[in-house]
Amino acid sequence: MIVEHLSLVDFRNYATAELALHSGPNVLVGRNGQGKTNLAEAVVFLATLGSHRVSSDAPMVRDGQEYAIIRARLSHGERKVLVEVQLNRQGSNKARINGSPSKANELPRYAHVVLFAPEDLQIVRGDPSARRRFADQLLIQRTPRMASVLADYDRVLKQRNALLKSARARGIRGEGLSTLDVWDDKLVALGSEIITARQRLAADLQQPVADAYAAIAGEDHRPQLEWALSVRGGDPEEDGADPTDADDTAPYDKVGETRLIADMFRASLAAKRSNELDRGLTLTGPHRDDLVLRVRDLPVKGYASHGESWSVALALRLASAELLRSESPAGDPVLILDDVFAELDADRRQRLASLTAAYEQVVVTAAVEEDIPEVLHAHVVRISAGTISDERSLRQAEGPSAEEAGEDD
């Protein structure tokens, strides 16, 4: 897949913006705070229905405006698709595909993007929510219908939490909580599907992550991925996930796992109901799980060096790209490397560049042009205070230089 053209209206610092992109590497250069990452964020939103920087859509709408528009022309071989989303400061977003109204959760069927960013270090070093977000955004790209499942789960979770808080305030217990059973049924059905999909994802990522880690780090540190599940009785969100406790983790095994997870989910809800009523909070489910990452048989968080942590983060993104590449009939996902080279040492820069250069389209943003390895240094666009200047277009308008025209000095 290739993004041929990106148009923005009232998105972040752009009142309007037009960006032409080409196959192969594209370099967006500009000082920090000029709007490079905003362009990357817009493309990523089309693929994941979310931002890698904020958890809600409102901050992406320009100050003083009620909505923003992201529009992109995508190329899938000979097929062209025009996708558009209106991000509303309040209310649901609206989408169009080839000019026809569509649900926003249909967009990931057409836009396939993998983002590398400095924030990726938080996937391996941050709290469990960062790892859940990484997994869920990849789930949406892999299986777009999961966007609806995740949204429905969040809606049910909010309703259930509201009921728990109300019951706590009113002192309701026992049979007075019959309504809670209805929400439990919905929570279990949706949550079990999410847990099973996440486990399958971790299993499918295992070998690609190991291969990518070895390519990035130049060493085999046996990286591993495994979900710690709150439905098994612990609470990875608060207590942390103990990677040495086999009873607290559950690698994906078989299709029937969903039914087993549902049974554990119901048992966990029953066991924790008293505590949930005391706190007015749902204490078990996929919203409290954690993706345990290990290298050298030790948890990355708390044990891995800075270089190892970066290698794991990069390996997760490269493995994601390889997984989407192998499964999608639309071709390669677009790779976006957003200010990531400034964070890496020279060796990892060269390794990452060589591993990504062969993708159909790569978009690189950087504050310092020299940070970008030569293999990715092609079509250059300069960004300054929200103004986009395409060097190729400028050279075409000015005519060839003396050297390009073959003139003597």
Would you give an account of this structure?
Belongs to the RecF family. This protein is α/β, with parallel strands linked by helices and 409 residues long. The protein has two domains: 194 residues, Rossmann fold; 179 residues, Glutathione S-transferase Yfyf (Class Pi), Chain A, domain 2. 42% of the residues lie in helices and 22% in strands. The strands form three sheets. Strands 2-1-4-5-6-7 form a six-stranded antiparallel beta sheet, covered by helices on one side. A hairpin with a 2-residue loop joins strand 6 and strand 7. Helix 5 packs across helix 7. The protein is globular and about 70 Å long.
CATH superfamily of the largest domain: P-loop containing nucleotide triphosphate hydrolases
Distance between the termini: 43 Å
User: Total number of β-strand segments?
Assistant: 15
Q: Name the overall outline.
A: globular
